[in-house]
Amino acid sequence: MSSKSQDRIEILTRSLEVSNVIRLKDAADLLGVSEMTVRRDVSAHEGVFTYMGGYITLKSPVAGGLGYILDRERGAHTDLKRAACLVAARQVKPGDTVFLDCGTTIPYLASALPENQDITAICYSINVAEILCKKPGLRVIMLGGMYHASSASFADSHSVQAILKLNINTAFMSAGGVNTSRGVSCSNPHEVDIKQAVLETAARKVLVVDSTKFNVIKPMLFAKLDQFDMICTDPKCDPDLLSHSGLSIATE
Fold first, then answer.
1. CATH assignment, 72-250
2. CB-based contact 208:241 (threshold 8 Å)
C-alpha cells in the first residue's frame, strides 16, 4: 500500500470515528481524490469499512459511540421482546401492508410474520430488512436515506415523503419509553420524523414494547398514548400501568 493510500485510510477512519457515516461524494471531497479512488480504498479494507447505498461506515463502530447503543441493547430482555412480538404478529392479516419500526424489538416481529400470505412489509432498518428479505412470499419495501449507526437505520426527509405516499394498513411501532402522562419516547432524534409520519398515515397503529419500557422516559417524545389503537406487550406488564389509557392491550 502506498503512503498516500495509507494516509487516506487514516483520515477517513478518524472522520468516521466522529460522524459514524459519510457519503461517498463527501469522502472524496475530504480526501481530495475521485469517488472511484475512495471506493478502491474502501474495497481494499473490507475488514475496516462497510460501503452501502453511497455511504461509508466503520465495520466496527467506536466503543462508546452511537453505534454502541444498538449493540448494548440488542441482547437485553430477549424473552420479553419475543413475547410482545408474537402477540403483535397475530394482528397481521393476509394481503396487509405493514410498517415495521427500527430498534432491537421489531426484528422478533419480522421473524414472526407469516410467509406466503401476500403481505407487503415496509421498513427502514438493516436488521429488520435482513430478516424480511429471507421470508418466502413477502414483498419488502426498504426506505432509503442517511444511514444512522445508532439504530442501524436509514432516515431523512426523503424517507418521510415516501412514507406519506404509502397506504399502510397497520404500523408496528417500537419505543424506548412509555409513560402514561408524558407519552411515548425514543433515544434517537432521527427516528422522530419517521415515526410521526407513519402515525399520520397508517390506518391502524400498534405499539410493540416489552414490560421494561413502561414508566420510562427517553429524550425524544414522538407520540401520545392515545395516538395508538393497541399495545402489544408481554405477560409481565402490570395492567394497572395502563388502566386509564383506554387502549386495547394484548399480552398473550
1. 3.40.50.1360
2. no
